[in-house]
Design brief:
By secondary structure, this protein is of the alpha/beta class. Helices cover 38% and strands 17% of the residues. β8, α8 (224-233) and β9 form a beta-alpha-beta unit. The N and C termini lie far apart (44 Å).
């Protein structure tokens, strides 16, 4: 039964990739153009720690006196993984870049799941008195953004999930195979996390109430069909498949593209930065 299910997922994934080539508009295919951008922030305004219930969390902040945006790195990353993206986003937002538990200079309490990382983010937001932030995440950070929005619907003002998968079976087969082989030689709970979680069901995704932008690259490590699945089960969500992009080419590898992605979508929400300071994100 598991073999049959895996075959059906593989067939469906291949079919969605082929369909994208024939009907790109169906998937809201988008090309990120990076001409005429504002200059990035020179450096972080803040480099500090905050004590949460289980984690001493390291974080950086770029920009100030602007609407809040949390930028969440992926598996194995740290606050510098998205440094260029944070520097450009600081033109429009006060950008908080926390390091997840078991990552970077944040403490390691021993256990890691997406629900625990979402709890940490909620505590981080509360500790710094951040109101209705946009939460933008890459890879595992995108799953964290989705999980935060589902577990604590009143916390984020909006989420931008870049390269999230709903289940490990939705990776293209080469990726989990590589992780599993790497884990044989150097066992790591961060590898276990990718191989066993998440499990984002339709019922769970339906708990999200804030606006959501679900994005992946045309040549991502996950199937286009999984991005469709996530967007179709999250209320008030929009989707985009980024033409020519991989899993990281528009985020950790190119902060300019990350800025364009967020800026263009948030501009369509028609909320001015002045109004954003006064009212929750709509």
């Amino acid at each position: 039964m598991n073999v049959l299910l895996s075959f059906l997922m593989l067939f469906g994934g291949l079919a969605s990739q082929a369909d994208f080539l024939v009907h790109p508009a169906k998937y809201n295919a988008k090309t990120l153009r990076t001409s005429d951008l504002p200059a990035p922030a020179a450096q972080a305004e803040t480099d500090d720690y905050v004590q949460l219930s289980e984690v001493r969390m390291h974080y950086k902040v770029y920009g100030k006196d602007k609407p809040p945006l949390l930028l969440i790195h992926g598996n194995g990353g740290n606050a510098d993984s998205l440094r260029e993206a944070a520097a450009y986003l600081a033109n429009d937002y006060t950008v908080y870049v926390p390091e997840s538990r078991c990552h970077g200079s944040s403490s390691d309490p021993g256990e890691i799941t997406y629900h625990l990382m979402a709890k940490d983010l909620k505590e981080f937001i509360d500790a710094l008195a951040i109101q209705k932030p946009v939460v933008m995440g890459h890879s595992d950070g995108a799953i964290n953004a989705i999980t935060l929005a589902a577990d604590y619907p009143d916390v984020p003002g909006a989420i931008i999930a870049c390269g999230a998968n709903s289940h490990p079976k939705m990776f293209k087969p080469y990726f989990p195979l590589g992780v599993a082989i790497r884990n044989l030689f150097h066992h790591d709970k961060l590898n276990d996390l990718m191989l066993t979680l998440p499990d984002l069901t339709p019922e769970y995704l339906a708990q999200i109430t804030c606006p959501a932008y679900i994005v992946s690259g045309q040549f991502d490590i996950l199937w286009v069909s999984d991005t469709v699945y996530l967007a179709s089960h999250i209320p008030s969500s929009e989707m985009a498949i980024l033409t020519g992009e991989t899993h990281s080419s528009y985020m950790s590898q190119n902060g300019k593209k990350a800025y364009v992605l967020a800026h263009e979508w948030l501009q369509t929400k028609a909320v001015s930065r002045t109004a954003y300071r006064k009212t929750p994100y709509m």
